Amino acid sequence: MIFDAIETVNNSYEVLRSQKILFNGKKLPVQLGEWYAKC
Description:
The chain is about 70% helix and about 0% strand. The protein has one domain (about 1-39). It has helices spanning about 1-20, 30-39. It is globular, with a radius of gyration of 11 Å. By secondary structure, the protein is mostly helical.
């Protein structure tokens, strides 16, 4: 169940990266931190 959640998050991350939403190939935790900082 936990692995399914991780896989879902990873797949979503790959989609975001492929759509150029994520920049500079940043790690997910770093990117999330920046998004939270902007809010």
